[in-house]
Amino acid sequence: MNSLHLKSFTRCKRKAWLDFKGKKSYEVWSPHKAIDKINQFQIFFEFCNGEIYTGLKACENGYQGVIGLKIKGNLFQNINAEILPQFLLKTKGKSKWGQYKYLPAVYKLGHKTTKEHLFDLAFCSMLLESFQESKIEKGLVISTFYKKVKVEEIYLNKKLRKKVLDVLLNLNECLEGSIPEITQDRKKCTICSWQKFCDKEAKEKGYLTDIDGIGSKTASLLKANGITNTQILASYSEKQLGEKLSKFKDQKYEKASIFVKQAQAYISGEPYFISNKNNTEDLLEKICSGFYIFDIESNPDEKHDFLYGFLKVDNLSIKKENLIYEPILNLKNNKGESYGQIIEILFSRKEWPVLHYGETEKISIINIAKELNFSFEEIDSLSSRFIDLHTLIRKSCILPLKNYGLKTVSNWLGFEWAQKNVSGSKALYWWIQYQITENQIFLKKIIQYNKDDCFATLQIAEYLIKNRLKKN
After folding, report:
1. Would you say residue 405 has pLDDT above 90?
2. In a domain, 424, yes or no
3. What is the mean pLDDT of residues 427-439?
4. Is there a single domain that holds both residue 342 and residue 219?
5. What is the pLDDT of residues 368-396, one digit of tens each?
6. Which of 459, 445, 335, 447 is nearest to 406 (CA)?
7. What pLDDT does residue 303 have?
8. 106 partner at 20 to 30 Å CA-CA among 193, 272, 374, 456?
9. Of 127, 140, 143, whose CA–CA distance to 89 is shortest?
């Protein structure tokens, strides 16, 4: 076992087991991992003023920062272990290499230092101590806050080390056993490289958390009342279920109805249409004279929208290949220019509504308008033009899907992206690569992805209009 297995284990026992024993052909490349690696290197590089070197030779030569070192050792009870320290920082002391030693350090994204960081530092220190023949009293958590490098010292006391040893024993037992059950709390599964593998099993076994709106707490409540899978839920009386959902108070019967119908749709593969004629008729009326489809690509960690994409649709009868797509690149040093282009597009057709999927796009434009000192009346007028199809499709139908994300819904409708296995996180990965290399290939990939997102949003709008008169 190694430090990466420990990191996975603190998040999900099943992930740790799959990382250790799972068939690699079932694992999907994760852009989140790649982005994390890039961010790690950039912050460590800045922290050491560029003096970063790789492997054992770097330690022997006494360089300031060391990455890419693997250390194997025996912990206890003949348990073999391996650490892959994210970063080693040279400091005063004495080791087998001379009048210096190394401290383990980890990279932190966000403000909170978690047990994942603490366990990683403590585990690394155990094998690093014997390897460099020098005691380690503390480790470092390095992060950036408002573009400034921040360092937090973590004292690796006996209590923390004992706790980590206990966790390592549990990890070793887990890795030697059979595959653990799928975790009930599946919020972070979206960024896991094993998600598709687990999704397949979850659907086959009828996991309740596959049903949109049912999290781990609601699933536990349902199980306590004898509803253990999606098949039982789909055949359950809505009224009887509502009586068991007291935690939802006045919404308990409404929630019960949605849960049962969502389970029925999920199993049958057929959508359930809700009477929502007014909203969809209103959509048709608003877009009949033309409209924009709007989609954004962003880096949430830096709160930076790096690409705005507009698709101009004069009417729905125009062939897709004749529609005009306009991307606007938003570099941090020329945002005034890009903001001007956005406003120019929006106000060239003042009467056109702006269709988007999710709340991000509307919030972003309102923030731009505020930055450009628009009046309250102007902001209100601009805001009223935005139509969120994500909200509208939830009000109009219950789809046979586990979530209502743009990719999930449009894939179900048969939309095909020009590039395989794409996602917002992969677009962000391309953006980071573009910033590092200035290679236009990455920019072209992002623009193609955003363009496809716009056309996927258009397909959802067409689906809503086509099915506006349907009701189960």
Report:
1. yes
2. yes
3. 94
4. no
5. 999 999 999 999 999 999 999 999 999 99
6. 459
7. 87
8. 193
9. 140
What is the three-class DSSP state of 73?
strand
Of 436, 434, 458, 437, the closest CA to residue 447 belongs to 434
Q: Is 397 helix (H, G, I), strand (E, B) or coil?
A: strand
Phi and psi torsions of 88, nearest 5°: -120, 130
Q: How far apart are CA 61 and CA 44, in angstroms?
A: 18
pLDDT tens-place string over residues 274-298:
876 666 778 888 888 999 999 999 9
Q: Which residues pair with 66 in a beta bridge?
A: 53, 88
- Both 324 and 377 in one domain: the answer is yes
User: Which residues form the domain of 27?
Assistant: 3-176
Give the closest residue to 452 by CA, choosing from 314, 293, 344, 329: 293
The answer on 166 and 23 residing in a single domain is yes
Instruction: Say if residue 469's pLDDT is above 70.
Output: no
- 297 burial (CB, 10 Å; 0-12 / 13-18 / 19+) is buried
What is d(CA 412, CA 419) in angstroms, rounded to the nearest whole number?
A: 17
Neighbouring C-beta atoms of residue 15, cutoff 10 Å: 24
* pLDDT top residue among 282 and 51: 51
Longest pairwise C-alpha distance within the chain = 80
Structurally, how many domains does the chain consist of?
3
User: In this structure, is residue 187 part of a structural domain?
Assistant: no
Q: For residue 335, what are its two tokens?
A: 């945002």
pLDDT at 315: 87
Beta bridge partners of 305: 298
Instruction: Return the CATH number at 230.
Output: 1.10.150
CA atoms of 38 and 30, how far apart (whole Å): 13
CA distance 428 to 430: 5
Phi-psi region of 68 (alpha: psi -120 to 50; beta: other; left: phi over 0): left
Q: Are residues 309 and 352 in the same domain?
A: yes
Tell me, what's the pLDDT at 472? 56
Q: For 140-194, write each residue's pLDDT tens digit.
A: 999 987 778 899 999 999 999 999 999 999 999 999 999 999 987 777 788 899 9
Same domain, 170 and 232: no
3-state percent breakdown (helix, strand, coil) of the chain, nearest 5:
55, 15, 30
At CA 327, angle to CA 325 and CA 331, rounded to 5? 175
- Do 456 and 406 contact (CB within 8 A), yes or no? yes
Mean pLDDT of the chain: 92
Residue 144, strand partner residues: 149
The DSSP 8-state label assigned to residue 71 in this structure reads E
Question: What are the phi and psi torsion angles at 81 (to 5°)?
Answer: -140, 160
